[in-house]
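Annex B. Sample input.
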Amino acid sequence: MSEAIYIIGLSRLYRTGRRRRVPRAVKHIKEFIKRHTKAEKVILDSSVSKYVFVRGYDKPPRRVAIAVMKLDQEGKVVKASLAVRIPPTPQPEGSIR
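Annex B, continued. Sample output.
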């Protein structure tokens, strides 16, 4: 099986409304992977969605590194997982999250 790593920029999503950013980020990641791998189906690992939601619903990260692995011989189904594990930033005590 072949594996590739893509760095996907999500900074364009900050031009949209605050409450729409994370759902659009997930859709953007899926469409990016479909476009670059010519796959018909993209399966996102839970680590991707957890990383996108780490700072809240309206502040997705500016970029994300995704490792893509083909699951079948033709490459029609791919699985995407987080390539670089980044621990969440600690919040100062007393801050509202």
